[in-house]
Write a structure and sequence with these properties.
The chain is α/β, with parallel strands linked by helices and 229 residues long. It has one domain: Aldolase class I (TIM Barrel, Alpha-Beta Barrel), CATH 3.20.20. Helix content is 32%, strand content 19%. It is built from 8 helices and 8 strands. An 8-stranded parallel beta sheet has the order 1-8-7-6-5-4-3-2. Helix 6 crosses helix 8. The longest helix has 18 residues. Bound molecules: D-xylitol-5-phosphate and zinc ion. D-xylitol-5-phosphate (DX5) binds next to strand 2, strand 8 and helix 7.
Length: 229
């Protein structure tokens, strides 16, 4: 996984057909997705349950590019090894998920994956100021995690603060929640490079009719790139 700050679209399979994850991953990659975003929820850290490492391992062979695993679970540390073994390229943990996020990030890198830190909307940028060198990605949540299809919460000031904090370091800024062609320009202009989108990518398409996925991905990317100038 090489580093660059080009706009990357990461469809969230939370909005895919759960009975056809393998085919859905292949379809979104064929339609132009850069990364595949995989939302793991435990019904404890967030009020919803999705799936765990066995499902990640099952879909891995259907993903050619980056598998970006977003852990909305607490505790995190006992499961890092399993998600790394399942083939996650990026493992993101929430800064709110426990008292030892520094150790969690060390463990993620130690397991051979890129380390991400996610911040809920109520968490300030300063929560990660001591962690920038431990991280490969900072995920700014623009919804309260747990569900797809929620309304975008404007976190532009936080994104700008993080972008300034990161400087020249090779750390991605990822945005997760409510990203569509209307909101993508705001976050791209503020300094984000990885845009997660669930409903705005999968809307109107299906595994048997995947062309709308491509139209949706292109629309988000074009809006984001135009805002960067
Ligand atoms: C929210 C998840 C997101 C979600 C995004 O808890 O982390 O990845 O699937 O979905 P949309 O794009 O529909 O807001
Ligand atoms: Zn997510």
């Amino acid at each position: 996984m090489s580093f660059d700050r080009s706009i990357k679209i990461a469809p969230s399979i939370l909005a895919a057909d759960f009975a056809a994850f393998g085919a859905e991953c292949e379809a979104i990659e064929a339609q132009g997705a850069d990364w595949v975003h995989v939302d793991v929820m435990d019904g404890h850290f967030v009020p919803n349950i999705t799936f765990g490492p066995a499902t990640c391992a099952a879909i891995r062979p259907h993903i050619k590019g980056v598998m970006d695993v977003h852990l909305m679970i607490a505790p995190v540390d006992p499961y890092i090894e399993a998600f790394a073994k399942a083939g996650a390229d990026v493992i993101t943990a929430h800064v709110e998920a426990g008292p030892h996020i520094h150790r969690t990030l060390q463990a993620i890198r130690g397991a051979g994956a890129k380390a991400g830190i996610a911040l809920n909307p109520g968490t300030p940028a300063s929560a990660v100021s001591e962690l920038i060198d431990m991280a490969d990605l900072i995920c700014v949540m623009t919804v309260n995690p747990g569900f797809g299809g929620q309304q975008f919460i404007d976190m532009t000031a936080k994104i700008r603060d993080l972008r300034a904090m990161i400087g020249d370091r090779p750390v991605h800024i990822e945005i997760d929640g409510g990203v569509d062609p209307k909101t993508a320009p705001l976050v791209a202009a503020a300094g984000a490079d990885v845009l997660v989108a669930g409903s705005a990518v999968f809307r109107g398409g299906s595994v048997t009719n995947p062309a709308p996925y491509g139209d949706n991905i292109r629309a988000i990317r074009a809006a984001a790139e135009a805002a960067r100038g």
